[in-house]
Write a structure and sequence with these properties.
about 65% helix; 7 helices; mainly alpha
Length: about 180
């Protein structure tokens, strides 16, 4: 009788530990912001949500003259392009499994485009400096937190600088709109 009672208690204890371990790993390894407003099982729905977000402007976008990239293009497309890239490669729980070589390639592109950029707003200049420093970290080493920070910088700038209708930000940028 004592052995049956001990076996049952050990089984419950092991089951509880498994549940705790699974819950903890879920919260540690997934970026929950990106999963908060999407249906995880339907990638087409996720893309549709992003497309809808990018079409509904509520904040007035900054003037195109505020940022001219090193290649002569305006900063709006730069921000939009890399925010979409990070949504596609890091969003919805993909941070832990992202292809580091692809992240390095894009970080190098970002650094190249930032080289020679002309920025007339001090707060945007600070944010672009932060993007530059964070991209340099990604180029140097496989730093998932730096990748997450790049995603969040582009996310917030897409909302504040480009004026998209999406309320949730991380508060990581100096620029908050005019």
């Amino acid at each position: 009788m004592l052995i049956k009672s001990m076996g049952w208690k050990i089984g419950v204890l092991i089951g509880g530990l498994i549940i705790i371990a699974l819950s903890t790993s879920y919260f540690l390894f997934f970026d929950h912001h990106e999963t908060a407003n999407t249906n995880l099982g339907d990638d087409s729905l996720q893309k549709q949500n992003i497309d809808e977000m990018n079409e509904n402007v509520v904040n007035p976008p900054a003037d195109e003259s505020v940022v001219t990239m090193g290649n002569g293009k305006d900063g709006h497309q730069f921000i939009r392009t890399y925010h979409n890239f990070y949504n596609d490669t890091l969003g919805w729980g993909r941070l832990a499994t992202a292809d580091y070589n692809l992240q390095v390639e894009k970080a190098k592109e970002i650094l190249q485009l930032l080289d020679g950029a002309v920025i007339t707003n001090e707060k945007i200049a600070e944010d672009f400096y932060s993007i530059k420093k964070t991209a340099e970290i990604v180029v140097e080493k496989d730093d998932r937190e730096a990748m997450r920070k790049l995603h969040r910088l582009f996310h917030d700038l897409d909302i504040y600088f480009n004026g998209y209708d999406y309320k949730q930000t991380f508060g990581v940028t100096k620029y908050r709109g005019e």
